[in-house]
Amino acid sequence: MVAFPLTFMRLRFECQAETPLRLGGWRAGNNLRGALVDVMRRATCPYSVPALAGMSVPPDPEHVATCPVCWLVAANEKPGMERRGYVLTPPLEIPELLKPGERFVFHLTLLGEAQRFLPYFVLAVPEMGRDGVGVGRGHFTLRRITADLLNGKEEEVLREGETILRPPKVSLSHTEIQNYAERMMQGWQATDIMEMRITFHTPLRLIWNQRLIKTPDFAIFFARLLERVDDLAKQFSGANQRPYEERTYLRDLSLQVRLIENDTRWIEVSSGSSRTGRPTWISGLVGFARYAAPTKIWRELLPWLIWGEIVQVGKDTVKGNGVFRLSLPGVKKGGGGGYYSTSHR
């Protein structure tokens, strides 16, 4: 198989509520993303100033190439189908109301070339807290930033009480993904058929043949996952098209995975759109499903499923949708409070 070139940097932002804070439940990702974009537009992009936003003259190409807002946020060549160079993972399993002094965690993942914009994201988060987020515009303070190293360890990027930013020394690649998958597989018992549980923490919104998919069909889920990972690699790491033979091979493997338990439900969620001025639907599946397949099949699919955990899957991932976590019988994941942690404290 051809080497997979996508790299990533996954940052864990630990924050503390300063006033009563309502992030919005299923809309938490959308609310945090909206606050992030507002700050970055105001602080870094003159083309986002209201007086200039209606100009018919497009931004200067040199500006677009160096502006994180134009390059990462405002690009709209394919409305509704864009692949952004960042992923926002909202806080999971937090109360509806965070009281002053309580802490919560969200993650930002920068992909490929987007990692050069790390300072802009880090500077934007404290300003988000000062502006306020969610219903009632609750305020928060950034306390600490760490980078997940995928080996049970983390690297401090911003220590609590300090203002010195220490960018991660290296970004992670497919090699680290494969190593992580191998460590997970070592915890499996040697049986012919193995089960995997996938928990969908935020709405999973899949479209197949122009219709919404309201059951967790594994083959469709995996096809959309692989499509997203490949598109991100092409756009942000200069990858070539995955060979047809490899795509066919992985597709055929995914068709052998059986759904053995479905405890998901469809929830209706809408969000506001600053581009259209109308609400948009970000509804999807939440809950968990269990799947079974021969162990040799899971060995082939697992690295790509881990990529899916990192980049999220389905529609509206930029708004926090498509967050899922894998769990395998007898295998304990995580370590060091990395991105597998769901606790808000």
Automatic annotation (TrEMBL):
This is CRISPR-associated protein Cas6 C-terminal domain-containing protein. Residues 198-323 form the CRISPR-associated protein Cas6 C-terminal domain. It comes from the Bacteria. InterPro entries: CRISPR-assoc_Cas6_C. It holds the Pfam family CRISPR_Cas6.
